[in-house]
């Protein structure tokens, strides 16, 4: 395990977001909450390098280029001990409903995000 994981405990929040400003803002907000975060610019980078435990959280943008956020969520749900997942999106409600028709219980926060909404979702 990397030393950072031991230092901050088992909880890591993995952020998969292609908008650098949104990823940075999320990371800074989580840092203020004493949460260790890792950011990934796309699904491919996340899938190639993330070390996950069931204690971790994954915040995933549903509108990712390449491997979609929806596909990432499906892959994570197939893991024997999946991490907890929070989806974020700037899509309209109609598009969200279409994307998540097979995942009705998925937690989704709409952009723009607030620190209060993130805290509530991760609680």
From TrEMBL:
Q: Where is the Response regulatory domain?
A: 12-123
Q: Gene3D superfamilies given for it?
A: 3.40.50.2300
PROSITE patterns according to UniProt: RESPONSE_REGULATORY (PS50110)
Where are the 4-aspartylphosphate modifications?
Answer: 61
Q: Which GO terms describe its biological process?
A: phosphorelay signal transduction system
User: What InterPro entries is this protein classified in?
Assistant: CheY-like_superfamily, Sig_transdc_resp-reg_receiver
Checking Pfam families in the record gives: Response_reg (PF00072)
Entry superkingdom: Bacteria
Keywords linked to the UniProt accession: Phosphoprotein
Q: What is this protein called?
A: Response regulator receiver domain-containing protein
Which organism encodes this protein?
Answer: Roseibium marinum
């Amino acid at each position: 395990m990397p030393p950072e994981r031991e230092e901050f405990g088992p909880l890591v929040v993995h952020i998969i977001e292609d908008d650098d400003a949104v990823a940075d803002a999320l990371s800074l907000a989580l840092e203020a909450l004493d949460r260790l975060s890792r950011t990934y610019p796309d699904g491919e980078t996340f899938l190639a390098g993330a070390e996950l435990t069931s204690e971790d959280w994954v915040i995933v943008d549903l509108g990712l280029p390449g491997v979609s956020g929806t596909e990432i969520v499906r892959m994570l749900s197939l893991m024997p001990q999946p991490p907890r997942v929070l989806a974020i999106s700037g899509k309209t409600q109609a598009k969200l409903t279409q994307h998540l028709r097979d995942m009705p219980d998925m937690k989704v926060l709409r952009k723009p995000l607030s620190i209060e909404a993130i805290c509530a979702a991760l609680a």
